[in-house]
Amino acid sequence: MEIKAGDIVSVRHFSGTKLFKSLVLEYQNEIVKVRLLEDIALLNCSQGDPLVLGSESENEIYISSCTILNLNKDQNTIEMKIDSYETTTNKRLFVRFPVSLYAEARIGESQKKHLAIVKNISYSGMMIFSKADFPLYQELKFEIHAGSGIKINLKATVIRKVKEAYNFEYGLKIIYTDVHTPNLLKKYLMLLKKEQEESIKKFKELK
Questions:
Q1: What is the CATH number of the domain that holds 77?
Q2: What pTM value is reported for the model?
Q3: Has residue 2 been placed in a domain?
Q4: Can you tell me the distance from the alpha carbon of 182 to that of 199, in angstroms, rounded to the nearest whole number?
Q5: Residues 44, 57: one domain?
Q6: Phi then psi for 186, rounded to 5 degrees?
Q7: What would the 3-class secondary structure string for 31-70 be?
Q8: What are the start-end ranges of the H helices in the chain?
């Protein structure tokens, strides 16, 4: 993947309802600085939040899972670190699809809801960030807010836990208890893939 200053890219944050057209200002050693071409105040983002960066290089669409390092609301800029990326043509795309989604998590039968942010998701598992301290091997119930009124409800077990600077990072294994959930998740990921491809091409045409 190649990104350079002057490239038009897309940015997705869980607080927004769409992809935001952005201009690359700097790129070095997997650190990208972009200027949003819309008001950054439309996004309620903070250091440490997961972000999805969409870009095009040599006719390939790349979807990168990123972490916000710094932001300057006066200059409308965000600096982020690229953690991993996929291409939309990759047949293994759904092994780990980068997302930035708001979710609510509950422990077992508890009604108490904990804020969680989904950073990537696949048919078998997902990675989330949360300030909540969940035990290893704990079963959690999730309501994932996927935008456009779409809500995905599923169960998952904590199989990995790492304390980060701003949050706990969790790796989870999805437990399917509803036959409709896998199809809903598949349709949603296909929708994200199509949206990413179309948006990048549209943004570049309007450059």
A1: 2.40.10.220
A2: 0.83
A3: no
A4: 26
A5: yes
A6: -60, -45
A7: EEEEEECCCHHHCCCCCCCEEEEEEEECCEEEEEEEEEEE
A8: 181-205
